[in-house]
Write a sequence for this structure.
């Protein structure tokens, strides 16, 4: 932690609590789960809140990169990017799990684990939720590589993949496991799983195109941004995206703020935000990440239970909590309970003392919670495709 504090140039506190955390976690009775929206094997339950907060003073990563107010670059390229006499972090060179970010804007920046930045020597995903203050000094940004086969600079700065976040199984490997090898395994599984799904469900020409794409790159972002992949993702995501937007419009006064996610009736994830407006900014990317999680799952449909979805959202009184805090900026709590891990990002910026984002995942890898397709044409009955770990 001392090393981390020195790198970031901020005061970080790490607090470890063991035992039952009675009264220390969020009262989730303020959230209500509504009837599900379904598309194929994907189900999302809209979540509404008793009240929301004003998040207009915050900026998202997509907005910051698009405007140029936020710069992300390899560690070795950080010098010369700071205006004025602020100190610059110096590194010997680029590092797989480190990028440098500078927020030049007047607004604090929200970063969500699983957001994808492309460019540099490798595509990366953000490793954890955090807030970067306005006009920040350069910070070391904890990331994970999602392109294991490249270490050649494509560009000095990074752009955002604004069509999709990393799917829940990859986000879980970054957020909970914090393990680069597991992230790489998840990327390979996702890429191959998409290719196998296309082989079964799409035309021969599309299957051939997808197979060539997967064979030609190790980049999760490139594979998921390919025309065939986007078509497959949209088949699942578009119906849910449209129907949920209708829900948000109809229930604006009830404050739609998030979702509980299930694949084939198995509850795997939830994302809840401080405001409807913040959810709307992330929703197109989130719903496509959920859709990508369905590739390689069993075809039989199961309807999740509404009461179970509400219970999944409500349970946040864990047995173990780790808190990381940058005083006056943010607090992130990792809460481990029976069969789940949850993450709460709370703003500590004056006049914004509220939870910005809560993510919760079923314990264990998402892949272990999903029934999988077996492709007898290629593997024989009872065979296991290579993307199933």
């Amino acid at each position: 932690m001392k090393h981390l504090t020195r790198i970031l140039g901020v005061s970080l506190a790490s607090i470890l609590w063991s035992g039952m955390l009675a009264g220390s976690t969020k009262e989730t009775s303020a959230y209500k789960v509504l009837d599900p929206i379904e598309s194929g094997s994907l189900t999302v339950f809209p979540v509404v809140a008793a009240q929301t907060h004003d998040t207009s003073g915050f900026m998202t990563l997509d907005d910051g990169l698009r405007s140029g107010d936020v710069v992300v670059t390899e560690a070795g390229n950080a010098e010369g990017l700071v205006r004025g006499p602020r100190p610059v972090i110096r590194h010997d060179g680029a590092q797989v799990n480190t990028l440098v970010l500078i927020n030049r804007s007047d607004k604090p920046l929200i970063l969500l684990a699983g957001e994808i930045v492309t460019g540099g020597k490798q595509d990366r995903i953000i490793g954890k939720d955090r807030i970067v203050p306005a006009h920040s000094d350069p910070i070391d940004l904890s990331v994970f590589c999602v392109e294991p086969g490249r270490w050649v600079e494509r560009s000095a700065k990074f752009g955002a993949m604004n069509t999709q976040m990393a799917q829940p199984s990859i986000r879980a490997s970054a957020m909970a496991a914090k393990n680069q090898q597991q992230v790489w395994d998840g990327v390979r599984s996702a890429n191959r799983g998409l290719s196998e799904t296309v082989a079964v469900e799409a035309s021969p020409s599309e299957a051939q195109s997808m197979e060539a794409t997967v064979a030609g790159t190790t980049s999760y972002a490139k594979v998921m941004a390919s025309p065939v992949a986007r078509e497959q993702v949209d088949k699942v995501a578009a119906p849910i995206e449209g129907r949920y937007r209708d829900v948000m419009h109809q229930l604006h006064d009830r404050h739609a703020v998030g979702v509980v996610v299930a694949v084939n009736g198995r509850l795997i994830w939830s994302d809840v935000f401080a405001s409807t407006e913040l959810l709307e900014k992330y929703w197109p990317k989130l719903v496509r990440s959920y859709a990508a999680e369905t590739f390689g799952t069993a075809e039989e449909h199961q309807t999740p239970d509404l009461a179970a979805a509400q219970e999944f959202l409500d349970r946040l009184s864990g047995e173990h909590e780790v808190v990381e805090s940058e005083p006056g900026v943010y607090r992130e709590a990792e809460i481990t309970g029976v069969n789940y891990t949850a993450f709460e990002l709370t703003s500590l910026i004056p006049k914004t003392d509220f939870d910005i984002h809560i993510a919760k995942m079923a314990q264990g890898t998402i892949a272990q919670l999903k029934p999988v397709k077996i492709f007898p044409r290629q593997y024989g009955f009872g065979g296991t495709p290579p993307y199933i770990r």
Remarks:
- Residues 2-367 form one domain.
